């Protein structure tokens, strides 16, 4: 039950149509695409850890943060489809809200770790070895998780469900925003977006400068690195930039229901953009690597080969059960040739796989 004395907010009448039209589509898309993509990403991070690569620790932590948020999406889908009416208890609202914000800021933290790790590996390959070890990566990861959990425990000690003008129980929504949220939003903008963006920009500018000056790097490799770096910064700005800018705008100007209603749609559209980070992370940091591409190409080709063999077996089974005819064509009387062709394909696949490993 909502405590009307403690949790009641100004009775703003807000048009929530964006939640019935756009939000379910985005949440369902991210859940369907993000869940398998992040599971594969987690496996890729495990392979990196197994190979004693500290980058795998950052990738696994980044993926775990994404998966935690993806698992909370069914609750948000039901929430928006019920016209922003939270039907569960307040504890679950807090948990889902924490997973939402944890996903944003833990993702930002580990994106910075990955960028700094790559910067040290490319720009200072023979220095700072103590910062590029498995132990250092585990310590940094523990610090990031501890910091964000403590921040959430400090921020979300207040009641996070309230009653709107339509008697709906809303979760993590205050219109207009409360006084205590202003300073928190300024902190989230500066420490959670602006500072990490400068770290990202500094790291990748250093990487691009070294790659540009390198005469031993092939031209296509340089293009690939530049595209990856520029895509990372671009997706960081698109996923997190609009949301944090609107946090500051709300903190400065939102002091009445009229402004809250005007900015509601664009603010929640920016919040939906942060959700796409769960899909962008595995694409950028895992599926863009050449070794991962070859691994998925192997899986794809193996599946196609198995499907081809399955079709052959089904055809042979049909031919064995069919009545014999004296005028059957020569190639149908020797189905073993098709099986041999399939075996030949498998042999060629093995050769290409071996070439890929080389």
From TrEMBL:
Residues 341-358 have a biased composition (Polar residues). Residues 37-285 form the G-protein coupled receptors family 1 profile domain. Pfam families: 7tm_1. One of its GO terms (molecular function) is G protein-coupled receptor activity. It is found in: Cell membrane. It comes from the Eukaryota. Residues 320-358 are annotated as: Disordered. GO terms for cellular component: plasma membrane. GO terms for biological process: adenylate cyclase-activating G protein-coupled receptor signaling pathway; cellular response to acidic pH; insulin secretion; monocyte differentiation; negative regulation of monocyte differentiation; osteoclast development; phospholipase C-activating G protein-coupled receptor signaling pathway; positive regulation of insulin secretion involved in cellular response to glucose stimulus. The chain crosses the membrane at residues 25-46, 58-77, 97-116, 136-157, 186-207, 228-249. It is a multi-pass membrane protein. Keywords: Cell membrane, Disulfide bond, G-protein coupled receptor, Glycoprotein, Membrane, Receptor, Transducer, Transmembrane, Transmembrane helix. InterPro entries: GPCR_Rhodpsn, GPCR_Rhodpsn_7TM, OGR1_rcpt. Belongs to the G-protein coupled receptor 1 family. This is G protein-coupled receptor 68. The lineage of its organism: Eukaryota, Metazoa, Chordata, Craniata, Vertebrata.
